[in-house]
Amino acid sequence: MINSAEVCVDEALCGLVSASGGLSLMGGGHRVLLRSDLNLLRGKVALLSGGGSGHEPAHGGRNSEHALSSCSRGVFASPPPTSILAAILCLHNAGASGVLLIVKNYTGDRLNFGLAAEQARNHGVDVDMVIVADDCAFNQPSKAGRRGLCGTIFIHKLAGALAEEGCSLVQIVSKVTEVLKGIGTLGVSLSPCSVPGCLPSFDLPPGDMEIGLGEERGRDGGGEKVEMDPRRAWNQEIGESRGVVVARVMSGSFMTSLEMAGVSLSVMTVDQETLRLFIVILSYTVYPIDAKTSAPAWPNLSRPLSPVMRKALVKVCTTLLEKQEELNALDRASGDGDCGNTHAQAAKGISSTAAL
User: Fold this and answer.
1) Per-residue pLDDT tens for 246-300?
2) Which of 169, 232, 256, 290 has the fewest Cβ atoms within 10 Å of its own Cβ atom?
């Protein structure tokens, strides 16, 4: 479903921008996504993350207030230092008080983001970098350390909420560094994936699964909702049976890997201070993880109804109420005759909740 492997990343970026309404693409041949409201960064810390393509909606889907300020993407590989530096300078020139780089623990990412950070400091930019290494697949990690996986999403959101509240770069780095110690991810794959234009990355016989594939497995996978939803309950039950207090559960495709099927579980431990921060952070009365954001990939509460949407909902709800008995009669021919009642109940609920 792509035109060619050579242009699919660029076309995907253009599609994301056109559909989001809150993102823009940096020019100059750089595969860099920016918030469209960079003027709001003045005096605040900006966040930059990124990595190879194919793991959408990470990281481009996290760009917005209370989340990332910018994202640099490579062609199924780490973005080049030139593009990362261009993004840093763009954020700096927009008036950001500092730039925090959120980097997953992969050699290419660390080298390229690190080199760009050094070059940015030579331009007078206040820039720092945090490394996410949350892979729990191995008891003894390699010399390079644990890999960065889906736990990165926690840091995007937490650091974004802190930045939006005006915390300094030093304060954000300090808090993020503390939180990183308590984040862990374990993933399992049920199938391989294929970079566009290439053969599958590995073979996996039917009925087998592989644990600990790294970032290539940070998602809710190709599994259907009916497979994924019970897993949420199982995870919570297992944790609570071992005395773990589960304060928050999220489920969805936060970091994917092309067509690969599988699941991953990311856990973050909290002490009293971190929990307080998640519950009430300065003027927030909600978790920073729930702070409203226009990031296209982040689940949000509904926005205020537009006049067109309100008119459509009023018409739908009115019609369902008017046709209640007719729908019941139709349902009685082949069912239990309550179709109209069920839809009428839904219409009343929508009307009440949305104040139609």
Assistant:
1) 877 777 778 877 778 888 888 988 777 666 555 533 333 334 455 555 565 555 5
2) 232
Mean pLDDT of 113-117: 97
Q: Output Rg (C-alpha) for the chain, integer angstroms.
A: 23
Q: How far apart are CA 2 and CA 14, in angstroms?
A: 13
The secondary structure of residue 39, as a DSSP letter, is G
In a domain, 206, yes or no: no
In a domain, 161, yes or no: yes
On whether the CB atoms of residues 3 and 11 are closer than 8 A, the answer is yes
Nearest alpha-carbon partner for 40 in 265, 241, 230, 294: 294
Q: Which pair of structure tokens corresponds to residue 111? A: 């080298």
- Give yes or no: residues 11 and 149 share one domain: yes
Where b means 16+ CB within 10 Å and e means fewer, 131-160 reads bbbbbbbeeeeeeeebbbbbbbbbbbbbbb
CA–CA gap between residue 123 and residue 218 (Å, rounded) = 35
Query: What CA–CA distance (Å, rounded) separates 104 from 144?
Result: 12
Both 313 and 183 in a single domain? no
Residue 212 lies in a domain: no
Same domain, 139 and 267: yes
Residue 324: give the domain boundaries.
307-354
